[in-house]
Design goal:
mainly beta; about 210 residues; Porin; 1 helix; single chain; elongated; 9 strands; eight-stranded antiparallel barrel
């Protein structure tokens, strides 16, 4: 993707992340503890959290009746996650993940909006993640015209939260996202995305 298109997208996501983080911090300081903020006696996972990630995603598709998935096409990805901490073993939230491919005057994208759960089996930062939601496979042209399909999406992944400070974590992760669509012209088809990401996670608790 040319920098002229990728840089504005990343700046927009970064500004959105900082804005949401600032609003959440102020709001939580004025509200009692609950689902969003759960304090634990030991330093670890707690409070409201938000994460911004960049990565490389391999997209492939399979038309129905199945002919097998195509070869993976790797392109940049960007993701935003936010939510609350239920306990030191569970975070819940929402995630938007987009794969972006520029082809001449058009930009292809494969995006998902998901409810996600991250389960931590031990005190370490290792977690497994699952999610369900909606997917969007779209093409947008320079003149503003766009078209695409909306369907269902599911996610399974694994990651690690490496503590950099009391509220800051480095977050490498690998996610597998499946998409299912029904197009009136080509019929049913599937998309899949294998994403290798690296992000920063911030939390209000210690």
């Amino acid at each position: 993707m040319r920098p002229t298109r990728l840089v504005p997208l990343l700046v927009t996501v970064a500004v959105l992340t900082v804005t949401l983080w600032g609003a959440a911090t102020v709001g939580l300081a004025q509200t009692p503890e609950g689902l969003v903020e759960v304090r634990t006696r030991e330093p670890g996972r707690s409070g409201f959290w938000i994460a911004l990630g960049l990565g490389a995603g391999g997209e492939s598709y399979d038309l129905q009746p199945s002919t097998g998935y195509s070869s993976a096409l790797y392109r940049p990805t960007v993701s935003v996650r936010l939510g609350g901490t239920i306990s030191r073993h569970l975070r819940l939230g929402g995630e938007v993940l987009s794969w972006i491919n520029e082809v001449g005057p058009a930009v292809e994208s494969l995006s998902s909006a998901l409810f996600v759960a991250q389960i931590y089996p031990s005190k370490s930062g290792l977690y497994v993640k699952g999610g369900l939601g909606f997917g969007r496979n779209a093409v947008q042209f320079d003149d503003g015209y766009s078209e695409g399909d909306t369907g269902f999406a599911g996610l399974a992944g694994v990651g690690y939260e490496l503590r950099l400070g009391s509220r800051v974590f480095l977050n490498p992760a690998v996610d597998f996202v499946g998409h299912w669509y029904d197009n009136s012209l080509v019929g049913n088809y599937r998309e899949r995305l294998v994403n290798f990401g690296l992000g920063i996670l911030l939390q209000t608790g210690r």
